Amino acid sequence: MSKGIVLLAAGGTGGHVFPAEALAYKLKERGYSVHLVTDSRAERYAGKFPADEIHVVPSATIGSKNPVAVARSLWTLWSGMRAAKKLIARLKPAVVVGFGGYPTVPPLLAATRLGVPAMIHEQNAVMGRANKALASRVQAIAGGFLPEGGGQFPDRTVTTGNPVRPAIIAAANVPYSPSNPGEPFNLVVFGGSQGAQYFSKAMPTAISLLDDELRDRLRITQQVRPEDMEMMSVCVTQLKMAADTAPFFTDMAERLAAAHLVICRSGASTVSEISVIGRPAVLVPYPHALDHDQAANAAALAATGGAKVIPQAELSPEKIASILTHVMNDPEKLARMAAAAKQAGKPDAANLLADMVEAIAARRTIAEFKGKRA
């Protein structure tokens, strides 16, 4: 028999849906019925998200200054909140949990107006606009990188970390093994579509600047956009690089586990996965990220000594070559960075988040939850 219904609300992108998915599995294991409310974009996740039912509620973002567009968005939000109220009245969830993105606004507003316990999870070190709008209304705020006891709502904030995929948890069991001079050096390079484009241009030039001895040691895994694959293939051939290049790797967790160094963007999930596995990284925040959240995420890991952060504007091919030359000749430094990254990782984030959800569903305060943890 189900312990009750938990209604998860998430924007229709992977960054919002994947942490909700990890929590959903934990809640199902604990005997809860899980429903997901989102927008039409998330329908592609319907096949694998472990929800008893997926509900689509109208929503919109107010990003335009055009009065007509603003009025249309407000009407859509109002319609979405009416639909969410009807859904919540029918389902009678024990708690509603939001994971960010504008589709979370109608169900979370509806829950708070109906007196249903509600909480939000924020992946990034900087709170997104939807969560910021909801933070004052909910009973609890879980954070991937938000400082516990800090921010605008310190009494309601708990740093849970970001739930990560089972493959990442498995990869975390692989210890870091330094590459000594003369031994193969595994370099993993990846980013989102924009990040992949930048690295595709910068990395071949950087590698061409290395001494032959270092270049011969390199074993590269690099994510490359489909439109850049031909260019990268030519570069790999000309430089005689030992490289695997692809738009997507299904075994990225295993490749990260084997990495001696990672060069990548600093989205919340990426930083969380690197730290759980415990691998040294050069983080290059996407310069056009909304609210500069990637820079804040990167700074959180760099503060532990687990990563070096370099703005894209400062990361020339010459700089990359200099970094590689230095670290490939200093395995002890990379081992220290790997240990620091692992120390910062939160592999139990999904369990802790599930504990928090159960506490809010039982109408316990965050002070009571923190006291029980202590």
TrEMBL record:
Enzyme Commission code: 2.4.1.227
Membrane topology according to the record: Peripheral membrane protein
Keywords associated with the record: Cell cycle, Cell division, Cell membrane, Cell shape, Cell wall biogenesis/degradation, Glycosyltransferase, Membrane, Peptidoglycan synthesis, Transferase
Pfam families named in the record: Glyco_tran_28_C (PF04101), Glyco_transf_28 (PF03033)
Localization annotation: Cell membrane
GO CC terms of this entry: plasma membrane
InterPro entries assigned: GlcNAc_MurG (IPR006009), Glyco_trans_28_C (IPR007235), GlycoTrans_28_N (IPR004276)
Catalytic activity line of the entry: di-trans,octa-cis-undecaprenyl diphospho-N-acetyl-alpha-D-muramoyl-L-alanyl-D-glutamyl-meso-2,6-diaminopimeloyl-D-alanyl-D-alanine + UDP-N-acetyl-alpha-D-glucosamine = di-trans,octa-cis-undecaprenyl diphospho-[N-acetyl-alpha-D-glucosaminyl-(1->4)]-N-acetyl-alpha-D-muramoyl-L-alanyl-D-glutamyl-meso-2,6-diaminopimeloyl-D-alanyl-D-alanine + UDP + H(+)
Protein name per UniProt: UDP-N-acetylglucosamine--N-acetylmuramyl-(pentapeptide) pyrophosphoryl-undecaprenol N-acetylglucosamine transferase
